[in-house]
Amino acid sequence: MTPPSGKQETTTPRAAGAQRAPATDTSAAKAPSVREAVVDGAREALKGAVLGKRPYLKEAFANPYNLSLLLGSLAASVLTLNPFIAVAALGLEGLWLLHGPDSSLLRRLLWDPKFEKLRLALEAQERAERTRNLQDSDQRRVEALVARQQEINTLAAQNPSFTGDLLRNELLKTSRLVDAFIDMAVTCARYEEYLNSVDAAQIKKERQRWASEVESSAQDDVQADIAKRNLSILDKRIERMAEIRRYVKIARGQLDLIENSFQLIADQIVTMQSPHELSGQLDELLDGVEAIKQTAADTEKLLNSL
pLDDT-based confidence at 303, cuts 50/70/90? Predict the structure, then answer.
C-alpha cells in the first residue's frame, strides 16, 4: 500500500498541470469558434446575396470588362491630359449603371446563370454538411432525390401550362420536401444508432429479474419498494424504445413515399394541364411531413427522458 506522503509527492505536480490545462484548452477552443463564426457569417452574406434580392447593380459594375474599360479610359485621360475622355467615360458609366442592371436580356444570359450556379453550389455544400453522418446508402438516396427535384423543376419550366408565380410557389414546395427528407433521414439515423447501442435483450432480462424480486419480497416493504421502482423504470424504457422504433418505421415509410411521389410527379408533369394538379400532390406530402415532425418532437422528448 502506498504511503500518503508518496501520493502527495506524485500527484501535486499533476494537479498543478491540470489547473493550467483548462486555460490552454479554452484559448484553443476559442480560435476555431471565431474562425467558424467568420466563415458562417461570410457564407450567410453570400447566401443572402444569391437567394435574396440579387445584386445586379454590383454585377454590372464589378465585372472585369466594365472595370477594364472604365479604368483604361481614365488612364488614357491622364496620359493624354485630355479631361474630355474621363468625362465621357464617367458619363457612359453612369448610363450603363442606370440601365444595364435592369436589362432582362443581360440578366437572363449573364447574371442569372451565375447566381443559379452559386445557389446550387451553396445548397450542395450545406446538404453535404447536413448528411455527413448518414450512411452511404442514405446519402445516395438524398442525392437521387435532389436530382429528381431538379428534373421536376426543368420539366415544369418547359410545360406551357405552368407560368409565373404559381410555378414558383410549387417549386418552393419541392425544396421544402427535400429539406424535410434530409431532416427525417438524419433523425432516423440518430435514433437507429441509439437503438443499436441499447441491449434490448438485457433490459428484458433485467425486467424479469426485478419482477421476480417483486414477487419474492412481498413481506419486506423496503426491498419490495426498491424492486417495484426498478421494474417501473425498466417498463418505461421498454415502452419508450418501442415508441422510438415506431417513429423510425413511420419516418422510413414517409421517406419512401416522398421518393415514389417525386418519381410519379416527374412522369406526370409533362402532361399536367394546371399547376393545381402538382399542388395537390405536393400539399398532401407536406401534410404527411408535418405529422411526422410532430411525432419526431414527441419522440425526442422520450429520447431525452431516457
Answer: low
Three-state SS for 239? helix
List, for residues 155-199, the tens digit of each pLDDT value.
877 877 776 555 667 778 888 889 989 999 999 998 999 899 989
**Smallest Cα–Cα separation from 284: which of 179, 145, 173?**
173
The answer to whether the CB of 133 falls within 8 A of the CB of 191 is no
Q: In angstroms, how far is the first alpha carbon of the chain from the final one?
A: 41
Query: Which grid cell is 41?
Result: 457569417
Give the cell for residue 237: 424504457
pLDDT at 3 exceeding the cut of 50: no
Amino acid at residue number 72: G
- Helices 164-197 and 221-268: crossing angle, nearest 10°? 150
What is the residue whose three cell numbers read 400539399?
Answer: 283
Structural contact between residues 223 and 159, judged by C-beta atoms closer than 8 angstroms = no
pTM more than 0.90:
no
Digit-coded pLDDT (tens) for 55-89: 878 877 888 888 888 888 889 888 988 888 888 88
Residue 47: DSSP 8-state: H
The sign of the dihedral angle between the CA atoms of 264, 270, 273, 275 is positive
* Closest residue by Cα to residue 185 from 121, 243, 259: 259
Planar angle of CA 24, 27, 30, nearest 5 degrees:
150
Query: pLDDT tens digits for 269-299?
Result: 877 777 677 777 788 888 888 777 777 676 6
Q: Single out the residue of 216, 238, 139, 119 nearest to residue 182, CA to CA.
A: 139
- Phi-psi domain of 135 (left: phi exceeds 0; alpha: psi -120 through 50; beta: other): beta
